[in-house]
Predict the 3D structure of the following.
Amino acid sequence: MIAVTLPDGSVKNVEAGTTPMEVARSISEGLARNVISASYNDTPLETTTPLTEDGKLILYTWRDDEGKKAFWHSSAHILAQALEELYPGVKLTIGPAIERGFYYDVDFGEQSISESDLKTIEDKMLEIARGKHEFHMRSSSKADALDYYKKQGNEYKVELIEGLEDGTITFCDHASFTDLCRGGHLPNTGLVKAVKLMSIAGAYWRGDENNKQLTRVYGISFPKQKELKEYLALLEEAKKRDHRKLGKELSLFTFSQKVGQGLPLWLPKGAALRERLENFLKAAQKKAGYEMVISPHIGQKELYVTSGHYAKYGADSFQPIKTPNEDEEFLLKPMNCPHHCEMYNSAPWSYKDLPKRYAEFGTVYRYEQSGELHGLTRVRGFTQDDAHIFCTPDQLDAEFKSVIDLVLYVFGSLGFEDFTAQVSLRDPENPDKYIGDLENWEKAEQAIINAADDKGLNYVVETGEAAFYGPKLDFMVKDALGRSWQLGTIQVDYNLPERFDLTYKGSDNELHRPVMIHRAPFGSMERFIAILLEHTGGNFPLWLMPEQVSILTLSEKYENYGQKVLNLLENDEIRALVDNRNETIGKKIREAEMSKIPYMVIVGEQEENDGTVAVRKHGQGDLGVMSVEAFTDLLQNEIKETIKDFKG
Ligand SMILES: [Zn+2]
Ligand SMILES: [Zn+2]
């Protein structure tokens, strides 16, 4: 008998040789039907593999990320089989599961495929799936594996196998198909009920542009047809909310080939939006005791050699800027931290002066390959809502709590209700990987966990995920379409205080090293606005909207009254415009709806005589006639509801 421990801690004593699927069945038939894959002692294995020793068994279903991974990995095998059958002689290379779906990179040789062939391939895949073929793992010697692919003339698999150690090589077989594979499959192909091949792209073998270009076929698959339909609908919606499309429609930002790729140009409405976000954070930061600082966009190369950023970014980033003087080199700044360290160093500090909290909307530049650039989410120049806190080790606890308060305030005011946090700690088995003394690390890690508990965060702890210079807390938000985005980060740093020789005088009159915290609730203004655009579909919270009210005149006769309403609203700091064009009211309403202006007020003879406005809300319609004062109150109440005062 062996002891199989399940995730809930319960132990099942079963005969050696029992399979994960049999364990599932002993729990319930329902579970057995839903099991997709399994892991034993943290190693993926087939649901049909006999268990021979005591261990920890996890059974995955479609609801688990691991389950989806096995599902899509198995689907990639089915895709490969379909391609081999439809295009004899193709050479398979690699085909992994990805975040959403899977792909396979294939060398089609003399043959080629186009989008119009995808349907035929999908049908073939479904035909294979319906055969309910079981996946079987099989070990192979290196010599046999090499021989197999050399006979096929598949130089890609040969290259892969040459990089593997003898004794570790396995194949996966299903139906008449076989592929080099490490394992982790569905019980059989029949679980795949819906398939969609999304696109075809070029991809270099091993991502190296000096290598041959292969054809990458992207796909996704589901256990139910209904789930595929929902996924495709979600993609449609995501397309509508693409921040690049909305940014253009709402005239927020643009890019120019002449200015340079990856360098966003903020148009007046976008700049105003960004300024409002910055002012919002500045006001909260002021209450939380931050001081604003400003640093230049470049710094001497030496600065970044000291900070270590040159070693990290130097070779693969923008190259040093030369001056007419020999030996003088500057770098575009990739990070604000070194500048802030030198600011800290501009005066001697005592423990009574700490914490020092320096905040800056600091623009930084990092080279990204042109293929990596994407709208506002991957750019070459961006502005971080950066701040660095310099404090004593004993102050970490309180500082962490206060930063979390600020981050939660930001998320709440912008309508991100669904978020999780990740605490990244050091790997205690590998103490040499980290800088800073053990006692301080323990203090910092405890401070992060205490703060996360105290604030009731929904968080996971990842051991071994800390940076070499300190533990951290990252926030992930889910947007309206259920997609996860990494946003704000709070990071402890023992490294830069060391490198910049930062000190303060303690109560013992000795010099000590301060601890540094890096934090950015938005992350970067560019990325944050992109995420906010996709989350809200451009319907920002009212307080953030570039234009909050459009005043639509029933005819040009009411221009004066429209203007009067505008002045009244502007006196109360409401952003409005008058649409007095000689167009029908229906057209004016439609256009205001299109540009996502949250409120429309219609003014005509009746309204002018009574001193009222007829109010419409974007996406909702008529709210009735009211006085201008009542309308102003309505707007101000809505703003107060979302953006509360930060208590600090
Ligand atoms: Zn496989
Ligand atoms: Zn920093």
Observations:
- The CA atoms of residues 43 and 184 lie 9 Å apart.
